[in-house]
Structures are given as structure tokens and as C-alpha cells.
Known about the structure:
The structure holds 2 protein chains of 2 kinds.
Chain A: H1 6-21, E1 24-25, H2 26-36, H3 45-57, E2 61-66, E3 74-79, H4 81-105
Antiparallel strand pairs in A: 1-3, 2-3
Helix pairs in contact in A: 1-4
Chain B: H1 4-12, H2 19-42, H3 47-55, H4 63-72, H5 88-104, H6 107-136, E1 147-152, H7 164-173, E2 177-186, E3 189-192, E4 195-198, E5 201-204, H8 208-212, E6 218-219, E7 234-237, H9 239-246, E8 256-259, E9 262-269, H10 277-282, E10 288-291, E11 309-314, H11 320-337, E12 347-351, H12 352-357, H13 360-392, H14 394-402, H15 407-443, H16 449-452, H17 458-484, H18 488-493, H19 502-537, E13 548-554, H20 563-578, E14 583-589, E15 600-605, E16 616-622, H21 626-630, E17 634-637, E18 651-655, H22 656-662, E19 672-675, E20 683-689, E21 704-708, E22 716-723, H23 727-741, E23 747-752, H24 753-760, H25 762-796, H26 798-806, H27 811-840, H28 856-882, H29 886-891
Parallel strand pairs in B: 5-10, 7-9, 16-21, 18-20
Antiparallel strand pairs in B: 1-11, 1-12, 2-5, 2-11, 3-4, 6-9, 7-10, 8-9, 13-22, 13-23, 14-22, 15-16, 15-19, 17-20, 18-21, 19-20
Amino acid sequence: MxxxxxxxxxxxLLILALLEERERHGYEIAKLIDARSxxxxxxxxxxxxPMLYRLERRGLIQGKWxxxxxxxxxxxxxxxxxxxxxxxxxxxxxxxxxxxLNRVAGxxxx
Amino acid sequence: xxxxRSIVRAHLGHxxxxxxxxxxxxxxxALHVAEHHAELVAAGVSDDEALARALEPLQGDARIARELxxxxxxxxxxxxxxxxxxxxxxxxxxDVRQACRLLRREPSFSAVAILTxxxxxxxxxxxxxxxxxxxxxxxxxxxSDRLVMVGERADDGTPGNVGFATLxxxxxxxxxxESIAAIRLWQPTLSLAGQPERLPAMRVSANFFRTLGVAPVxxxxxxxxxxxxxxxRVLVLxxxxxxxxxxxxxxIVGRSVSLDGNDYTVIGVMPSTYEALISEHFYRRAELxxxxxxxxxxxxxxRSCQHLKAVARLAxxxxxxxxxxxxxxxxxxxxxxxxxxxxxxxxxxxxLADELLGETRPALAVLMGAVLFVLLIACANVANLQLAxxxxxxxxxxxxxxxxxxxxxxxxxxxxxxxxLAFAGxxxxxxxxxxxxxxxxxxxxxxxxxxAGAATDGRVLAFTVVLSAAAALVFGLVPALRGARVDLxxxxxxxxxxxxxxxxxxxxxxxxxxxxxxxxVLLSGAGLxxxxxxxxxxxxxxxxPDRVLTLAISMKGPAYARDEQVVQAQQRIVDGIAxxxxxxxxxxxxxxxxxxxxxxxxxxxEGRPVTADDPYLERYSVTPRxxxxxxxxxxxxxxxxxADRAGAPEVVVIGDTSARRLFPESDPIGERVRxxxxxxxxxxxxxxxxxxxxxxxxxxxxxxxxxxxAQLTDDFVTVVVRTAVPPASVAPEVRxxxxxxxxxxxxxxxxTLSELVARSVGPRxxxxxxxxxxxxxxxxxxxxxxxxxxxxxxxxxxxxxxIRTxxxxxxTSTIQLVxxxxxxxxxxxxxxxxxLALATTRLLTASLFQVSPTDPTTFAAVVGVLTVVxxxxxxxxxxxxxxxxxxxxxxxx
Lengths: 110, 893
């Protein structure tokens, strides 16, 4: 199989997975990805927000301006039901993919 | 304090979206940048550097603006993980290469599939190249669709022979034909360099070649001046004869040649490309031509001397129907003027192509159909293999689907694999057929120049390409649709050895049923033909063919100008051969049964009214011991003896059928008849002999009569020799004896009578052999197919069987499980196949002899054979199933 655009698919997975835990805003998402991957994957502003807007357009996440006392207003994103389904589907695909990789090339995932 | 919004807005530039949304985006991005900046500053980075680093992602080209703009466009289709293809053609070739790679990785499957397809496609290509050469190629004459045969209507509705005077009248009075040519058999003896040779030839009217639209390549064609008795000794040679006997002499035109002791002048040579199809069809392939050279004063030019055939070209724009109406009108006028010379039967017109090719069409059609069935069986087998293989690849498809491949893409992928297999098989098949076709044309008993043209030309290749594509569609579609219908969750969760995928198993079983059904049809056809040929060879020909040698000799030239000279020479030859060791008896006859000849004369019984509808009897002029040599029995009266010499009372012996038909109420012995018109003597019937099958074994005996050679002498006779030893061993001695007695007598057509009998069933037998071959192929392929499917099923159901065995199921029940499962589709196939065969075997009716197309014994045998084969094919896998060790099987993943 040829997979020239791996990052695109994985970006979706990462974002949806992070939003599964709780609502977050853009900067928080970027920071978390950076932290949890030990710097291996990082999103900068120019790639993160277009991705978020796309996901929003597709109804997988929903963004909302939230104003809290003594804080700037921020845009928080949460997972929709569709996003949850999509996340599950993506997880399965990736699981199977890694199984296949393992069988073929002896690559194990953690 | 930075104005982050302004800074971000400045960096973004303009991006197309509505103002409100733009503000939101700017605000969100500004927030992100600000937080990043704050974080950096808190980490000890200087303000300027922090600013630079926070803003860095927004630098550069307007890519981010574009991305943002794109993100605003609603798109329902999620971006797939695999790049969607916009470049169609490159994709196609990539898929093809990928299909090739995949197939290379499964060499046993690919080899079996390609070989199977090669067999099916190759056989079709071979037969088609013959069909192409014989039937589809236009005749090698100019506008051959306007060429027809014209003649008085024979019993079977085809045009028969014509008399010269009739032809002259037709030419003068009919408007419907551009030209009418006449042809006649001629067998001159060429005397060259002391080697007499009897040549197959034709006498033709001067316009013969022009009617066909061909012409000599050396010298000139005949003219009307040549076509008169005084000038008819001119010749046109065939290219073959010119090379063979004249060494391709460039100065051949004008050269004098001795034929039948007379001098002829060569005026032309036909091109090497000329196909003497007409002479080949009616007589033997002519090697030279001379003008008929009649005029109306000659006795053989009479109206009722029907020994010419008419080949005509329709006038432009005239249809056959119009031509028939026209010539019928002319002929009706002739009938009124000469009622005694014409029967009431009327005329018939037949396209030349029908005349020349009509006999081969049904046989070729049968073969083409049979070979197509073989291909269908091959396709069913390959489809089965594909189904099994794709079932194993379910995971692969599930993954592709998850990674974004659409269903159409998956179907296309499988179809492409099929196309690659089919074209590989087709290429191999074409190579095989290129080798096979010459072998076929060599073996076929129908020697025809047309068959020699069978080759792998453009049309044949095009046929192969189309057939390969069609085969790919046939065997590829069902597996492709099945394979692409992927149940994502199910297949992703399954373990590797899944128990029966119900739909796939049904598909495979249906294909087995199809296999068997097709095999039934082929086997039935072959079986019926085998039975037919067997019946045919069992027909009593009316004579004893064993241990009889035949040779054709002719006595032409000044030494044999008078009948007495011929009769004396005949006697010397008979005596000479009879004296040889190993020879029991010798005789001569003007023609022999199954010899490929015909010579029918009208017979008029004394005392009966003179009509034009006198019967025609096959005439055999024979020497006395003929009946003994041939083993033809006497029914009543007496046979021909030495006493029946020239000058003695004229006698005739008639056949049994003739006796019954001509004299249904009375005894023929003693009655008198006149043969061949009213000019001959009255001949007394002295005996009745047993009938013989004259034209072919399948035909009922015709009316026949025997006359003494001494009283009605032939220039051409067949020597028949009954031997005590194998006839072929005597042949050289017989030849030497004849040459010693008369060295100017050419000897021709040496064969044993048994060979002639076998040759007469040659064409049918050939079709039978080919059908047998195809049926055998079908049987093998079906057996292999069943074996493969059942093996696979057993492998799939290993766990299930193991569990059952562990739970106490007996071996018998395991056998039942596997066998019943395997035989059920075979049973269905047999039923469907028999029904199909009953419907299609009636197409063979023309080739069958004394066998009904629905012959129950044959069908029963076919069902029996297939059942045995199908059961045998399942034995090995069933045995494996029985041997499954439950513990071992359940331990496997």
C-alpha cells in the first residue's frame, strides 16, 4: 500500500483523541501533542488551525467561544457524536494497519 | 504590549472569507501567538526573539492564508489517508503493474489460471483460424457474391448437370446473367519423358476464367476462337504443373504437349495464387484446362446429355430470385419445344459460395460451439480459483477500504488482475494455436486449398484479443464483486481461518455446477458422434472390403482408339495380374462404390411410355469376375460371364433396389431396357445382384446396373484385385505387371478397398476425434476444478470437522459431510447439463447417423462417467478430511 500522506490522517486522529478526554482550545492542543510525543510531533499555528476548522466543518468537532472571568475569551473545541464514531473507526484502522506491518516487517507498536 | 491582532492580520494578509469570520480567526490566532510569546518570555527568551519565534510560522508565502481559505470550504468527503488519484491513466498502469506483482507472488495460482485459460483460448483461436480461412475469407474471385451455379433441379434441390445445347439457348435468351460458363471433368494422360501420368483437369468454356474474374499470368486466356472442335487443342497449365513437370520453363507458351496421344499447344499458365476450388469441389483439383470445344453437331452436345455444369455471373443489380424467374421462363420455352429432353423438375440457382463451402459449414459450426464450451469451463475454473484466492485476501481488502479505497477501485483492481491473467493466457494460447493449426490442417481429411490458408492473421488476432477480454469479464466479474463487498468490522475482527463465508462458498459451488453442466454437453456431443461413426462403420457396404487392392488406369491415345483394342488390353492386364502369387481374382470396372465417382445413365424399360422422367441408374461396366472380387452376391438369375462379349446378345444385371423399383409387380429377368437415350441397343436383364452403397455409407443404396466391359467399354477403369495376402504388399508387383504389359498406361489412385471405406467416413470421423479431444479436455478441467474446490473447502472447514470429530462424530458422517457437500453441486450440474444437452445436440443431427440426438444410452453413459470422475476427484480431499486429528487441528491458530 502506498501512503504518501500519513501525517494528514494521523493529525486527525491526534486531535480527536485529545478532545475525547475533554474540551480544549487550540494552543492547549498544540502543547499537549508536543509534550506527549516528546517533541516528535509538533503542530504550529499555520497547520493546526486550518485542521481544526476543517474538522469543524465536517461536524466532527464543535468550537465555541468561552469567556471566563479574569481571562481572555478563548475558543474551545469539543468532540461531537460523529467525531467520537470517527475516532473509533480511525483507531481500528490504525490498529489493523500496525498488525499488518507487524506481520510483514516485524514492527511492533507499544 | 503588542497589538497581536494587528500583527497577525498584517502577517496573514487577505484571505477570502466573510469579515465576521475573519475577525474570529484573527483573534484565535492572535491568542495562540500571544500565549506562545508569553511562554517563551517566561522561559527566559528576550522579548524580540520571543516575538520572532512566535511569529515565525506566519512568515513566508501566503500558504497559510490559502489553507485557511480552503478550510472554510465545506467538504463532506473526508480526506482519505491514501492520496486520491486525479491522474487516471498513470493510475491505470500503476494498478496493472501492481496486479502483475501480486500475481507473480502467487506463482502456482497464476500458472494454473494462465494455463487453463491458454488451453481454452488457444483451442478457440485454432478453430477460428480454420473457420476464418475456409468460411469467412471471401472466395478468391472477383465479386464472388455474384457467382452462382445454375442447373436443372436435382432431388436435393441443388442445381444439377446441363446439356450443351441447353446452355447455348440459355446464353442466347437469358438477360439475367453477365456470363454463363460451362465446365466438365477431364482426365487426360500426359506423355512426357516416358512417364505417363493421368492428370486431373477440366474442360471449360472459353469464358470460364473471365467469369471468375481471374486470368493466366503467362500467355493468354482462351478466346471464342479456341472453343470450337477444330481449335480445342490448347491448354492453360496450373502453376504447380508448370513447375513440377515443365521445370518452370519460361518459354512454355507455344510449347507442344502430348495428351491422350494428341498434340496440344500451351497458351498460358495460371498464377500460383489461383485456387482451383471449383474443380476441387466437383472432381479433383485441376492441373490444366482446355476448351470444351463443342458445337451443336456433336452427339455429346445433345440436350439430354447432361454432363456439363454451369457456373454463371449474375448481371449487375440482378438478384438470384430475378435471375431464377428469368431463366425459368427461358427454360419453360425450351421444355415446350423439346418435351422429351427435359424433365418437369425446373431449375435451381445456388450461390457458388454455398456450393463450395456448404458442406463444411455445419461441421465447423459444431466445432466452434464445442470449443467455446471448453473455454467456458476454463473460465468457470479460473473464477473458482479467484474466489478462493480472494477469500483469503479479505483482510487486504478491508484495509484498503479503511484507508480510503472506494468499492469501485477495489472492483477495478480485481478485474485488472483478471485482465492480466486473460491476456497472458491469450498470448500463450495464440502461440499454441500457431503451432496447432498447421497440424490440424494437415490431419483433416478434407483436403482443401482453402484450409491451407489458415494462419494467425490480423482477424484471428483480433478475435483472440476480444475473446480474452470477454473471458476476463466472465471469470472476473463475480469474484471481483464478491471480493469488493467488504464487511469491514467482520473481516477486521476475524481470525485467519474463518469458517465458511457463506456467500463465497455458494459462488464456488455454483461454478462447479456450471462446470459439470458444460462438460455434460461436450461429452454428450462427443458420445453421439462416437456412436454415429461406430454405426456408420458397421453398415454393410454391400461388398467385402477386406483384402482388395484398387488401382485406376486409363487407356487413351491412338493405340486404344477402338473398343476392341481397349478390351484386348484389359484382358491382357487381367490375365497378367491373375498370374501373380498371392492374387485370388482380378477384375476391372468403370467405377467402384465409394470410389468418389458417379456415372448415371437413364434407363428406359421396353414397352413403357416414353417420357422425360426416365430413372437414372448408376452404371458399372465390369469384367466377369468383378462380383467375385468385390464379394457382391447374386440375388437371382445370373451374373456377367466371359460369354458376354462384343457381338454377343447385349445383357445387363441390375441391383436389388432397381429391380424392386422398376419392376414392383413383375420379374425383371428377361425384360429389356435401353440405356442413355434412344440410340443404343436393347439389353436384356439376365440377373439381379445385391445392392452396394455407392456414394457413402450413410446413404441408402441407389439404383444400380452392371454391364459387360466388352459391350460398353470405358477408357478409364479401376482394377480390383482380391488377394490372399495383405493387399498393399502386392501393389508393387501389380504395378510392374501393368507397366510391362502396357507402358503407356498411367496408374493412379492406388488404395485398398478398406482405405476407401475409411476415407468415406473421414470427415465425420475427424469431427468426432476433435469432439473427443474437447470432451477429454473438459473432463480433465472439470475434475481438476472439483478437486481444487473440495480441497479448499476441507481446508477451510478443518476446525469444524475437528470439533465434530472430537465431539464424537464418526468417520462415516465426516465422509458424508464432505462428499454430500461436494456432490450436491455436481448433481445440480448434471441435471442442468442434461437439459442443456438435450436442447443443443439437435444441432448435430446432420452429422449423426442412425443415432437420435437425444439417445438415452449415450446420455446415461455421460452422466455415469461424470459422476465417477466427480466422485474420484473428491476422494483425496475427503480422505484428508477423515484423517484430521482433532487435537492437532484445534491447536492451530
